[in-house]
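Re: beginner question about structure tokens

> Can someone show what the tokenized structure looks like for a real chain? I only ever see the sequence side.

Sure, here's an example I had lying around. Input first:
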Amino acid sequence: MVLPVRISGKDSANNPVNELAHTLDITPNGARLGAIHHALKTGDKLTLQYRQRRIQFRVVWVKPMEGTSEYQVGLEGIGSVGENWGLELPESGLADEYQTPTTS
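And the corresponding structure tokens:
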């Protein structure tokens, strides 16, 4: 699902991050973003704003896009999970690829 979003926060070097991007995929607990121009690192914490909602995420992977200065970024929700987006997402038996696996 493609949604326009704004991301903000600080990167691992304490530099401000504030840019417009869009989702490429969303799940109840995560997202894949495109059109990111800031070089983020795994573990960076961001606030994503979609409409009037502000959702806290952690960067779990970053992929530079060949031939551009853009990145795709995988995000995992921090704190409350589930209905963060305010959208009804289709039920799926697939694993949430944006959530880090837990070990027992």
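Each token stands for a local structural state, so reading them left to right follows the chain. The chain has a mean pLDDT of 84.
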